[in-house]
């Protein structure tokens, strides 16, 4: 499925040629041709930019980049506990690979790397002391008790206008009248509203990628990274991002870092000056992915379809990385270890997870979990069935072509589609909600999956349900009471609306986040009318969920919907239970409570947590039309 994220790229005339495919293909071939040999003229960079002593894996691969650096002889001055195991040349004369071993006895300091050619160059490479082990505020992971607030930094709040334009970067200044330009939101703007997130009941922040995206068009979304080891300075510096994570932790908020494994931006230095042709999936002419993951585990599938899916490009300006190359795999794994150790972030959200090389995904996940056991990994697997979705998470399946996912969690697109189907139109289809969970037996633990109503790649929930406020409350109640880790897209709490096609306005600015905004939804006074009612309803349920562990971590029992009413329970062995009843009909319905006797044992009444109303009779219920009840059962 093609993500709506890339519609702005295609609509925005990314390549001003009659044949963008041919243009990209030509540039790829040209960039992959080794440049003429040149004399070493200094080192432009080394990736990783620095490293740490005490990592569980003692091996370190350094990618050295500089004009003609391959013509140099590389050595390491004596440093206790560190050895240079070998030097490897690549196709391009502008790269060298240095393979080091950092023993457990090594101390922090600076390695002196010497490069001798026509000239001698010395590079002081820093080894730092680790800070994440033993620090309980770093790399906390996520659990079912979390509630993720998802936002786009560029569209949320501008806290530092001085970084709106950075000299030398390709995109022009901010232009808030264009949906495909940058608007100026940044890390400082998000930080300014930590109290807002907490008042809403959120416990974790997921932002679209904050890594550098120095692309000339539609660079605001962040999914075409141009530097693996730097933040986008229009959001804040690398150090400011580290401080942002620390401050979020101090405020009781976890941080989810959005990453892309499958591709990069075409302005990344690794693509502009390719280390070797086999660092990217090359084609004679530009070739897109077929966007169909079914090819990976289809027992009757063709090799061509599998190759197109995994090795075809996602978009013209997003070169597909060849993760089957072990040097590339190591480069990527080290990078994502680096971000965790440097910042102490809590979770990775993996963009376009299934598109990557399957064996690499297993290797990547294992390496991160071994180094950071508490790190939480969840992936975007936008597929068409529960079985296919479960294939990309830890599951009960046998390996397919050597692949068995070690990913803890995936976005639950199946239940997301179900809540839309259940509430779209006049006739409720509550059976879809029941069926979406019926396939949970395929997962190792489906309660780790991330549930949601909408996101930046699809039409907003409030518009999909026809701007019906009663249906909105049904959807919110379901999100905050069903199994899994709920995620809320920014603005859903104040009824932001619009469709992803044709104008992409699902990524509009949050009202109040920018100078001159006529409305300010960050304040109670600014949230007038139904926007305020929506915020209050959602926050009350989210805060109740936060204070009531059984609603997040308890077992779930659901009953087959009858007459448009869906009823399920969250309960635990300590005798706590909450009943959720969703009436999708316009009219009131009478529900026979005797049907739920196995869950009512030991309880005599209940309290509806939003209204405070008491339900004294558990044998029969009259639930109003288009109403959600969240009932704490009483003994």
Automatic annotation (TrEMBL):
One of its GO terms (biological process) is carbohydrate metabolic process. Residues 150-545 form the Glycosyl hydrolase family 13 catalytic domain. Gene3D superfamilies: Glycosidases, Golgi alpha-mannosidase II, Immunoglobulins. InterPro entries: Cyc-maltodext_N (IPR015171), Cyclo-malto-dextrinase_C (IPR019492), GH (IPR017853), GH13_cat_dom (IPR006047), Glyco_hydro_b (IPR013780), Ig-like_fold (IPR013783), Ig_E-set (IPR014756). It comes from the Bacteria. Keywords: Glycosidase, Hydrolase, Signal. Residues 1-23 form the signal peptide. GO terms for molecular function: hydrolase activity, acting on glycosyl bonds. Transmembrane segments: none annotated. SMART domains: Aamy. PANTHER family: ALPHA-AMYLASE FAMILY MEMBER, MALTODEXTRIN GLUCOSIDASE. This is Glycosidase. It comes from Hymenobacter luteus.
